[in-house]
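Final report, closing paragraph on structural work. Over the funding period we assembled a curated collection of sequence-structure pairs, and we close with a single example.
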Amino acid sequence: MSTPVLYRLLTQAALPLTRLYLRKRARKQPAYLEHWDERYGACTYPAPVRPRLWLHAVSVGETNAARALIDAFFAAYADSEVLLTCMTPTGREAGERIARAYPGRITQCYLPYDTAPLMGKFLDETRPVMGVVMETEVWPNMVSEANARGIPLVLANARESEKSARQAGRFAGVMRPAFAGFAAVLAQSREDAARLTALGARVVHVCGSVKFDVKPDPGQTARAEELKKRIGRPVILLASTREGEEKLFVDVLSRTSEKVAALLVPRHPQRFDEVFETVQATGLPILRRSNNEDFARAAPIDGPVILFGDTMGEMSFYCALADVTIMGGSFGPYGSQNLIEPAAAGSPVLVGPSSFNFAKAVADAVETGAAERVRDARDAWNTAIGWLNDGCLPERRRRALEFAHGYTGSSLRQMRYIGEIWENALRQRSQGDASHD
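Its predicted structure, as stored:
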């Protein structure tokens, strides 16, 4: 299905504005100035060596989630490769970490902006057998150009909030053909499936979320357990905090006298320095992971201390250090971050008022006793201190582990559908090549 002519013209006309956007983002994150040639097609995109799966994950969260699908894909199709695309520098960094596990099997580049000429050039040069797009990245020109070339697309780990569905519905003339252009949509929940079907998706399966297929890193877990003995005090993890949330908790911490460590891990690396300076200005003791400061130096400090987790790829380590987790993104208008990872490490979770991104998971966690709702930052902190002292922490840890285990298996379910489409696309390509001989 092709996109309306007006949309094609508008996206082409708007392309120069993206340069202003990138320069603005580069003020805080200079890496946005790198690899512009890939974003605008002023390059030769990498050609395949083996049958290629193209997987697009917009940023770091989606890229990390895609790891489970990549692992399952390579396990099933050894003689294949993956082209991993993203839109942000942090997504690219996360992709580099995945690529190191599969030398020579994963190629990376930025996906160009959604204009018909750029998408056409990208697909013609990269020649994927099929494409897998993560979560919410429904780009009309991308879908149209792939369909025109007979490249099947799957929308994996798909989610669609009520707000996003309303917005997409206002542009039904453009979005309905895009949703209908996917060979399959693999929804996270029944509610997501219903909204995606209403928007035009034709083949929809409910598979759960691959973000819940979290396997704690054994090496990081072991290091955390050894360090925890040396820290000599309980640890409350402030996980994946977003803008404005750190100040809420720093204000609470500055008024407390408990001998406890707050392990502060902001969601976005471009904010690490800004958050560190915010904490430092309060006079609270703070130890910074990226400076190789030994967190065990917290042991003799009276009162609270902040352990600042400003490194990438160590969330298993941070979760394993935690006795209790306070979930970032849920104390501002962000819809929460993923509570499964701390739960999978055996850390019970406190969630603030905003959880629309993980509504069902949060509701299930609360119902099973793996998590609890709190009103605000002060309520979260006081509840966490209460959990450390009420003697029920072992039972809460057990419930967190049990809850996390019940949410696993999505990557294998999604891979079953992806594999069917992959094999069919390979057969069709083989038949097409044979007909040209």
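The radius of gyration is 23 Å. DSSP finds 18 helices and 14 strands in the chain. We thank the funder for supporting this effort.
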